[in-house]
Design goal:
31% strand; five-stranded mixed β-sheet; binds ligand MTE; 4 helices; five-stranded antiparallel β-sheet; 24 strands; Immunoglobulin-like; binds molybdenum atom; mainly beta; 3 domains; single chain; Sulfite Oxidase, Chain A, domain 2
Length: 408
């Protein structure tokens, strides 16, 4: 290749790289011919398509990854930072032109099948900001320990979802008066590879299915759903354990009884109906299905380990969410929960959207502190200060989030 030709290629490459970086490359002339620039965005990993390499991977078969608290700072969690909780294997070769959702069941007036195009065009399209939290988020803290993914604080996120109301679609099919539950099946594959086994098949009571914000969604933050979050179609129920929000959705049953699919029984997504002492064995009949998730908050700035000068105040911020109407107050404490100060709280975009809080914290002297955050919702529910009730599978840990700060 001639030198002029090489120079021409190099210059046009530089120009296009500058466009994608959104700024000029100051020493661009010096870049060795085949050097790959790092870029300014977090890289996504090849192993986990569409997910940031900054995610904390708990397991790769099935894939489970959570978001470090400080990366949950955005009002809406970016798609590449949204946690992933899979029970089986991600479906392969998804053909969206031939993707269908079939609705039937004992309490359905008929069986109906919709293509994606029909769903999108036949029903009102709606957007809601909905918080999804795995029922097992915070499991790591329980003692004696509970089996399962050892989630710390990051099996939660809030996204803008686009889709249709579940109730509009159910109404189009026709719901018999004896309907009790709405159940889902997805296209993911059981870990054993067996075609006749479901990795998970859960659902919600008919009353929850008929709520205004209960959705069948195809987009997340104005993009297609990420493959790992259920592309091309999923359920989204704010306020309930995220296990109800079926991914890779292809079948819904309107049932005349409480759904009995995979992970509806035993200790899966169930807790003792009455509190038990830590480590207790609980009989099946004394276990109740988790419905509403408890009030909770998370400090997303700063990270634990932050340092600050005594003369300055520390800006803190985070989110709070609830299954009630809204969060009414987020307080913080710097003295291990004796005194509490109120933070500034944003309005809720809609029911089940998380709300943002912020405060400027002053410290009385140098030394080690913990900042704790505690949310209160419109039903008067207050977050547990320390670990709430132990249960066999370690669900519903809504203890105050804590960060450590050193004042110099
Ligand atoms: N089809 C299907 N849907 C599913 C699951 C799954 O494994 N398969 N996991 C459930 C669980 S336990 C959770 S917590 C949420 C996680 O949603 P996310 O991976 O989009 O964050 O999806 C739920 N829906
Ligand atoms: Mo979950």
């Amino acid at each position: 290749m001639s030198n002029t030709r090489r120079k021409f290629i190099q210059e046009s490459l530089l120009a296009s790289m500058a466009v994608s970086l959104g700024t000029n490359i100051v020493y661009g002339k010096n870049i060795p011919f085949d050097l790959q620039l790092l870029g300014l965005e977090d890289s996504t990993s090849d192993q986990f398509p569409g997910k940031s390499s900054l995610m904390t991977v708990l397991n790769d078969r099935p894939i489970n990854m959570e978001t470090p608290a400080h990366l949950l700072k955005d009002a809406l969690t970016p798609n590449d930072l949204f946690f992933v909780r899979n029970n089986g294997l991600v479906p392969k070769n998804i053909d969206i032109d031939n993707w269908t959702l079939t609705i039937s069941g004992e309490s359905a007036r008929k069986t109906k099948t919709y293509t994606l195009k029909e769903l999108k065009s036949k029903f009102e399209n709606v957007n809601y900001n909905l918080t999804l939290e795995c029922g097992g988020n915070g499991r790591k803290e329980f003692s004696p320990p509970a089996k399962g993914n050892q989630w710390s604080t990051g099996a939660v996120g809030c996204a803008k979802w686009t889709g249709v109301r579940l109730r509009d679609v159910l109404k189009d099919v026709g719901i018999k008066s004896n309907a009790v539950y709405v159940a889902y099946y997805g296209a993911d594959i059981h870990l054993s590879g067996a075609a006749d086994k479901d990795p998970i098949s859960r659902g919600v009571p008919i009353k929850k299915a008929n709520e205004e914000e209960s959705m069948i969604a195809w987009a997340m933050n104005d993009e297609d759903l990420p493959l790992l979050n259920g592309y091309p179609l999923r359920l989204v129920f704010g306020g309930y354990p995220a296990s109800c929000s079926g991914k890779w959705l292809n079948k819904i049953l309107i049932r005349d009884r409480v759904h009995d699919g995979q992970k509806m029984n035993g200790s899966a997504y169930r807790i003792p109906c009455k509190p038990v002492s830590p480590g207790a064995t609980v009989e099946d009949e004394d276990m109740c299905i988790i419905e509403n998730m408890p009030v909770k908050s998370l400090i997303t700035f700063p990270k634990t380990g932050a340092t600050i000068q005594l003369s300055q105040s520390l800006p803190i911020s985070g989110h709070a969410w609830t299954s009630s109407k809204e969060i009414v107050k987020v307080e913080y404490s710097i003295d291990f929960g004796i005194q509490w100060q109120e933070s500034t709280l944003s309005k809720s975009a809609n029911k089940y959207a998380w709300q943002n809080f912020e405060a400027k914290v002053k410290f009385p002297q140098t030394g080690y502190y913990e900042v704790w955050a505690k949310a209160t919702d419109s039903d008067g529910n207050v977050q547990a200060m320390l670990l709430p009730g132990w249960n066999p599978k370690g669900y519903l840990n809504n203890a105050c989030h804590r960060i450590a700060v050193k004042v110099l």
